[in-house]
Every structure is written in C-alpha cells, then in structure tokens.
Design a protein that fits this description.
Low-confidence stretches: 1-34
Helix content: 40-55%
Largest sheet: 7 strands, mixed
Number of helices: 15
CATH class of one domain: Alpha Beta
GO molecular function: rRNA (adenine-N6,N6-)-dimethyltransferase activity
Protein name: Methyltransferase-like protein 25B isoform X3
Radius of gyration: 23 Å
Distance between the termini: 26 Å
Pfam family, one: Methyltransf_32
Organism: Physeter macrocephalus (Sperm whale)
CATH topology of one domain: Rossmann fold
InterPro entries: Methyltranfer_dom (IPR025714), METTL25 (IPR052220), rRNA_Ade_Mease_Trfase_CS (IPR020596), SAM-dependent_MTases_sf (IPR029063)
Strand content: 5-15%
Length: about 400
C-alpha cells in the first residue's frame, strides 16, 4: 500500500518501475499497512539488528535508518575504495557513530548547530564506554578492530558555494590518497543539493549516498530544478504548497481520516492562524509553528494565541472571534482541500528525485535511486546513490539486507 514515485516515461534513464518506491504509515509499525519489519517483531522499540549500546538514545525509526544507510555506505565505500565518509547535516551523530564505531569507517561529521555537536560528542564518549564494558564482560566478542570515533566539525554548508572543510581529509587519512564518500540522512532542503554539487565538481569525492527531505525548503531557482531535462519541461514549477505536501505520509493521514478524530481540526486551526499572522505582519508568510500539544482540546482562539507567540508575534493581539468561529465552521472543507493536495505528493516527490538523478546522469555519472528503508517506518525511503565509475549490477547489492 502507499504511493510509489514513478519515473516519467520517456525521460532519460527511465525504466519500468520495479521495487523502487515508498509508502507511508502511522506512528506505530505497519498501522497503515499491517506490516511489521522483522527487526521489530520481538520488541517494537528495539531493533534486533542493533546491539543495545547502538540503540540507546535512538528512536526505533532512526535505529532502522542508521542501520540500513550505514550498511549501504559501508558497501559503497568498499566498492569505490573510499578512505573517508563525510556525514553532512549529522545532527546528534547517530549515523556517524554507527558508521565509525559500529562499522569501522573513518567518518567526519559536519553539523551547523553547536549544541547538537556537543551532544553528539557526549554520546560518542558514552557509547565508547558502553562498548568497552561489553567487551570486558564478554571477551569472546569479535569486534571490527581499532575504533575511531567520528571527527565532529561545526560548520554550515551552503548549497551555492564549496565547503573546503567538507573536503579536507582527516589527519590519519593521507591527503594524496583521500577518496571521499558523501552522505546525508534526510539532509534538509538545499543541504541535499549541496551534497550533489560537491560530488559533481570535486574529483576527490568518489561516491554519494543521499536521502533528502523537507522539499518545501528548496530554493527555486537554485535547489530545483537541477537538471537540464526538467528545467526544459513546460509547467515544471513547484510552488511551496506542492513541495510541502510532498513531505507528508499518505497512509498515516488516510488512517486519521478513517478515524475522523478531533486531531484533524489542526489544519483548520493552522489556516485560521495564518490569516491572523498575515493581517498582523503581511510580509511574514508560512512561518514554522512548532507543534502545539493537544490541539484538539484548545479553543481556536487559544491555539491562535499560542501560535502567535511561537512565531514571535504578540499573543495578546486583538482577535476577531466571530471571524475565527466562521473559519472553524469550514473545518471539513479545509480537510477535504488538504486531502486533495496530498494526493499529488507522489507525483511531486517523483519529479524532485528524478530531477536530481538526471542532474547527475547528464554529467556522465552513474546514479540510481534505491529503496532501502522500510516504508512503514520511513516515508522518505529512497537513497540517491552515485559513483564516478560504473558499478554495473553491483548497484543492486547495495540495497540488500546484510545477513
């Protein structure tokens, strides 16, 4: 069940759709599809494919993602002879930790938020201590050899300029032999574009494994379109609303519709809040509103007041309660509109991912889109893999599960 991004017939690199694609599901495994990934059959919160130290502080969804992407990166690194992996937009460093301390890769971890980097370094130390204790308790355990923790760097990566720090080899990786593999797990908006551009223009970058997200944050022009083929399409423009819709999970929302619970009114409340924001500050369009808890228990004016505060406006602005009540009366129409917009999500995501694939193929690189995450866990489940020398049938090996 779910939706499958379909490559456009007649486009460069188009093949018959096979297993590639993704679906979406609810917050519990398979509540939208009835399928539970095998690694969570025994315990829905702990992957049986990761040891306890690597599961600590990591949610089940992320456990699955770091394991699958980490294993793919390890295979790709071995196939392309890379000496160093660069994890861009690494956040708290869960993927970097698994690749370095779990799989034995040399990893540079780049993140723009100092607080996240500091937490990542604390978690690195905690994991190292846990692994050392485990080895003392069980000396027969065979590990990967000398462990190297990730090398963390605080740096913002701009999609329009080269980041030299990203390209520098680690101290114990000789510069004359450095071959880099760039990766990003759900690198937000233009950050995924930055990975593609660094791969395409620098000879020391030999391979790429990129999982994108937050399409609404792509710049246009700049982040989309990238390929000449898509740029030449009539009507290729993707306004914010379409790009934002492509980030939602269809099956999860379908389940909410079937239950017809009060949580659906969030859409109506958010639309009403937008009218108040635009009246108070017309230049402020679609500001991010961090999740307001238990929306369905709030009166619409209470939600608007909390929303105003979260976008930096005065929560005590005078409100037209009659107008807000009139907006609330349109709740079912707002839900219907949102549902119709969501039906376009597969088409929009297909266009964005196809554009990135073609951008690389137009330059003579070898690229594929591979479905590596269980769609019941991770709706953005396609990884864009690229190399500068042909791998042929070996590409298919990258998406297979390790035994």
């Amino acid at each position: 069940m779910g939706h499958t991004p379909l490559l456009m017939a007649g486009s460069p690199g188009w093949t018959e759709p096979a297993t590639a694609g993704h679906t979406a599901a609810g917050d519990a495994w398979g509540r939208g599809s009835g399928q539970t990934p095998s690694e969570f059959l025994e315990n829905p919160s702990q992957s049986s494919r990761l040891t306890a130290p690597f599961r600590k502080h990591v949610r089940p969804k992320k456990q699955h993602e770091i394991r699958r992407l980490g294993e793919l990166v390890k295979k790709l690194s071995d196939l392309t002879g890379c000496t160093q992996v660069v994890d861009v937009g690494s956040g708290q460093g869960h993927l970097s930790r698994f690749m370095s301390l779990g799989l034995g890769l040399m990893v540079k971890s780049i993140e723009g938020d100092q607080r996240l980097v500091e937490r990542a370094q604390r978690l690195d130390q905690e994991l190292l201590q846990a692994l050392q204790k485990e080895e003392k308790r069980n000396p027969q355990v065979v590990h990967i050899g000398p462990r190297h923790r990730p090398h963390h760097v605080v740096r913002w990566v701009d999609s329009t300029a080269l980041c030299e720090e990203l390209l520098l080899p680690l101290e114990n990786s000789p510069q004359s032999e450095a071959r880099l593999l760039l990766t990003g797990l759900h690198a937000c908006g233009d950050l995924s574009v930055a990975l593609l551009r660094h791969f395409s223009c620098r000879p020391e970058v030999a391979a790429l494994a990129s999982v994108g997200c937050c399409y609404m944050k792509l710049s246009d022009p700049g982040g989309y379109p990238l390929s000449q083929w898509v740029a030449g399409l009539p009507g290729r423009e993707l306004p914010y609303r379409l790009r934002e819709g492509a980030c939602h999970a269809l099956e999860e929302y379908a389940e909410r519709l079937q239950k017809a619970g009060p949580g659906l009114r969030t859409h109506c409340y958010r639309a009403a809040l937008e009218t108040v924001i635009r009246r108070a500050r017309p230049e402020l369009r679609r500001p991010g509103v961090q999740g307001i808890p238990r929306v369905h228990e709030l009166k619409i004016e209470e939600y608007v007041q909390r929303g105003l505060q979260r976008v930096g406006l005065d929560p005590h602005l005078p409100l037209n309660l009659a107008a807000l009540r009139a907006h609330q009366a349109q709740e079912n129409r707002v839900v219907a509109f949102f549902s119709l917009a969501l039906l376009l999500a597969p088409l929009v995501e297909t266009l964005i991912l196809l554009d990135r694939l073609l951008y690389l193929q137009e330059q003579g690189f070898h690229a594929e889109l591979l479905p590596i995450f269980s769609p019941e866990l991770s709706p953005r489940n396609l990884v864009l893999v690229a190399t500068k020398r042909p791998l042929g049938e070996t590409f298919s090996v990258l998406e297979t599960e390790d035994s």
